[in-house]
Write a structure and sequence with these properties.
Structural class: alpha/beta
Strand order of the largest sheet: 2-1-3-4-5
Strand content: 15-25%
CATH topology of the largest domain: Alpha-Beta Plaits
Number of helices: 11
Helix content: 40-55%
CATH class of the largest domain: Alpha Beta
């Protein structure tokens, strides 16, 4: 799979050198020379990693990092800060913003290549390979952090019947379903959630949204309504008209996929650990 890198660097010589070098390594490379342009590309493109210069003409790279963390569409994107700043405080500031690495100028381009490769391997093991959303480990980490706060809410989303859908129509069609569900969840959060909401995809048919108590029920209702209305459109027209799916050559029919949701919050119950919370989120 070809990974897409975004290089946010205002020095045109450096930017062009990195673009040519990483394209020669087999990457798809996008570039931006300002922080605003970089943010716009992060929201518009499907990226795998960002090489982010800290000193840019319009905004500080750390400010860009905060914008990325605050937006549910970009909060999962891995960032490597590239900077002339060598101070310990600068390095800590970058790591606090979720940066997975911190490279100081001047750098060895071959070393940077290895850092990018290793970062993508680490992220690839932690994000869901189909949707790109945080996977099981990252979701558990966020659940653990959430339980330490005084006010929180979680909404679980389960797609029933994905395994049978995959058996009949294949994994390509199944992956289209999962990506469409992820996009719908993101859209609903954009419309009725908060900017700090989190979406995790810990396993194939299961998503978890972390939000605030006064948003949970509305998110739950909107998600269940929209997804259940949309599920039939993933089926061919002849199956859609019959209302069921014939499983192979056998005289067996299975119903369409459907979605169920459950919401819990700090206002309704106290949980001792992540596992007890996950048990309550089963749906």
């Amino acid at each position: 799979m070809q990974h897409t890198l975004l290089i946010v660097e205002d020095d045109l010589d450096t930017s062009e050198m990195l673009r040519v070098y990483f394209e020669a390594q087999g990457y798809n490379v996008l570039t931006a020379i300002t922080g605003q342009e970089g943010l716009e590309q992060c929201r518009a493109e499907r990226l795998d990693l960002i090489l982010l210069d800290v000193r840019l003409p319009d905004m500080d790279g750390f400010e860009i990092g905060r914008h990325l963390q605050d937006d549910v569409r970009t909060s999962h994107l891995p960032v490597i800060f590239v900077t002339e700043r060598r101070g310990r405080d600068d390095r800590i500031a970058g790591l606090k913003l979720g940066a997975i690495d911190y490279v100081t100028k001047p750098f060895d381009v071959q070393e940077l290549k290895l850092r990018v490769r290793n970062a993508l391997r680490r992220v690839g093991n932690q994000n869901n390979s189909v949707t790109g959303l945080p996977g099981d480990k990252l979701t558990n980490d966020r659940l653990s952090i959430m339980l330490e706060s005084s006010e929180w809410a979680a909404v679980a989303v389960r797609i029933h019947g994905v395994d049978k859908f995959n058996e009949v129509y294949g994994f390509v069609a199944r992956d289209d379903v999962l990506r469409a569900v992820a996009l719908t969840l993101t859209t609903v959060i954009d419309e009725v959630g908060t900017i700090d909401d989190f979406i995790g995809h810990p396993n194939e048919s299961y998503f978890i949204i972390l939000t605030v108590p006064n948003k949970a029920e509305q998110l739950k209702q909107q998600i269940e309504q929209r997804l259940n209305q949309a599920m039939s459109y993933f089926y061919p027209i002849h199956d859609r008209e019959s209302g069921f799916v014939q499983l192979g050559d056998e005289n067996i029919t299975v119903p369409f996929m459907h979605v169920s949701t459950v919401a819990v919050s700090s206002t309704t119950k106290t949980f001792a650990d992540v596992e007890s919370l996950k048990t309550a989120l089963k749906c």
